[in-house]
From TrEMBL:
This is Helix-turn-helix domain-containing protein. Keywords: DNA-binding, Transcription, Transcription regulation. It comes from the Bacteria. InterPro entries: AraC-bd_2, AraC_XylS_family_regulators, Homeodomain-like_sf, HTH_AraC, HTH_AraC-typ_CS, Tscrpt_reg_AraC-type_HTH. PANTHER family: ARAC SUBFAMILY (PTHR46796:SF6), HTH-TYPE TRANSCRIPTIONAL ACTIVATOR RHAS-RELATED (PTHR46796). Pfam families: AraC_binding_2, HTH_18.
Length: 347
């Protein structure tokens, strides 16, 4: 959800630089002020909402906001509570956003447009800032954590009149579920490790998140043709990159196999890669060599034969692997391993 005052700012490289992560912790406040501070947080946000404590014990919450312009991403960890957006709050201010929300742990329910859905593990749900909604988080014990992202509807460039059919419905978001799974992984990674990214990284991630959300909605609206062509190609490349990384160990990985898995022609696949200044086969080889290089430098794998490492990353011939490795890193695999093993001792 999106929220406003009583933030603690966290900026890349320390204070004085751009603040791209903000954190609210009820535990930082006296017990008697915590619920009031949370009311202020949600009531004065860009998307005004009302908070209702559903727990018998005092309300506790931690809210982290990460700026992925043009999207707003938020992680909320809270004791049982409801977040409401009423007609009155909509009249107070409406940023006209489409939001996606998913549970990291605990229970999550979303109600909007006459529907109520329980969002389970490996699922997500959509809701709209221009319609009343209720979001409930519940936990058998402790706190429930959810992650949400909010995008201006106009930027999605999709038929907005049809969004209503997707609101408050459980959509697949687990591993291997397509755009939902990719979006879930990106959002949970960003909110979990925001301090590892530079501001320029987050700006790039904002564009990727926007493209994934657009593709997710378009897919479920059966409106792939309405996705702007550059966004569609960018999202397809993200899916292809993920597929390649998951299958680097498979010696059968090839441009033909990748094209078949994504229902496109090999020539279309090569056209997608052309702006990168490399070929599909070269990209696969580079990634395999990098994984093998890491294994050769890993002290825990010193006893693993070089040919086993080569096979582990999809190389079928030892001589082919040795030549490619020497060309990439200036030394044969065995010499590279000895050099990296000797470097710590020399230091």
């Amino acid at each position: 959800m999106t929220a406003g005052p009583r933030w603690v700012g966290v900026g890349h490289g320390g204070w004085g630089r751009t603040v791209f992560q903000k954190v609210f912790r009820s535990a930082d406040l006296p017990a008697g002020e915590r619920l009031a501070a949370a009311h202020e947080l949600f009531g004065h946000s860009v998307l005004p909402m009302r908070l209702v404590n559903q727990a018998d014990s005092p309300f506790e919450a931690m809210v982290r906001h990460v700026d992925l312009a043009p999207l707003r991403v938020m992680e909320l960890a809270a004791t049982p509570a409801s977040v409401l957006r009423t007609e009155r709050l909509i009249r107070r201010g409406d940023p006209e956003m489409l939001s996606v929300i998913l549970p990291v742990n605990g229970g999550l329910a979303v109600s909007q447009s006459g529907r109520e859905t329980v969002v389970g593990r490996d699922q997500l749900a959509l809701y709209d800032s221009s319609r009343p909604f209720e979001i409930r988080v519940a936990a058998a014990g402790g706190m429930t954590t959810v992650v949400s992202a909010h995008a201006p509807r106009a930027l999605l460039e999709l038929p907005q009149a049809r969004f209503g059919r997707l609101l408050a419905r459980p959509l697949p978001a687990g591993r291997g579920s397509g755009f939902g799974g990719l979006l879930t992984q990106l959002l949970t990674d960003v909110t979990g490790d925001a301090d590892t990214f530079a501001p320029t990284d987050l700006a790039r991630l904002g564009g990727i998140t926007h493209d994934l959300l657009t593709a997710l909605v378009a897919h479920h609206l059966d409106a792939e043709a309405a996705v702007p062509d550059p966004a569609h190609q960018h999202t397809l490349l993200l899916r292809i990159d993920s597929f390649v990384q998951q299958h680097l160990h498979d010696a059968a990985l090839s441009p033909a196999a990748i094209a078949a898995a994504h229902h496109i022609s090999v020539s279309h696949l090569h056209r997608l890669f052309a702006p990168r200044g490399t070929t599909v086969a070269a990209s696969i080889r580079r990634q395999r060599l990098e994984r093998a290089r890491r294994d050769l430098a890993d002290p825990a794998l010193l006893d693993m034969p070089v040919h086993r490492i080569a096979t582990r990353w999809g190389f079928t011939g030892h001589s082919t692997f040795t030549r490619a490795f020497r060309a990439a890193y200036g030394a044969p695999p065995r010499d590279y391993r000895h050099q990296t093993a000797a470097a710590p001792r020399a230091a």
